[in-house]
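Example 4.3 (complexes with small molecules)
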Amino acid sequence: MKNSEMEQDILKVLVTEEEIHSRVQELGAELYRRFEGKKPLFLGVLKGSFVFMTDLVRACQLKSDIEFIAVSSYQNATVSSGRVQIIHDLQQDITGRDLIIVEDILDSGHTLAFLKQYFLTKGAASITIVTLLDKPARRAKAIAADLAGFVVPDEFVVGYGLDYCQLYRNVPYIGVLKPEVYSG
Ligand code: PRP
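Answer. The structure with PRP bound is encoded below.
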């Protein structure tokens, strides 16, 4: 990984692999405490959550099932358009289910504000929002996570599922992208 083509585009490491692993174990344990005896549905928001989802469900040994929804509001831009599009919808009825929404980042809040309302109209019994990263500096919607892994500054972060133009999702840590990569 060191000195790979991707690595050369990273300005600095914001959260290391070890820090992520340790925090994900804590989040899994906390979810276990909150949902012990229940059967929540882990609902990952694609694409960004795909790495976090796989680690989080294994860190939380509940008898739970998983589901995904794919949305996009950035369309490869660096600022949210505010228009959230469903690209791949739920494949099951969520009426009466306790949902654990799994996100990689809560940024402007457009995505989660939209999804929370959408899942409520679909009949969810409860909604718990878990995000690996929380970037409060750019919040445009009044929405908060129930559990957040790390609060991050207003920098362009990639890795552990987060992309820039669909790249860097497989960087194993959270890194800050060099400005020259996205400014031309
Ligand atoms: C990213 C991320 C969240 C959302 C958060 O998704 O995965 O879903 O943005 O930003 P917000 O709080 O400003 O709405 P994106 O639309 O880039 O699609 P992706 O998950 O496929 O990367």
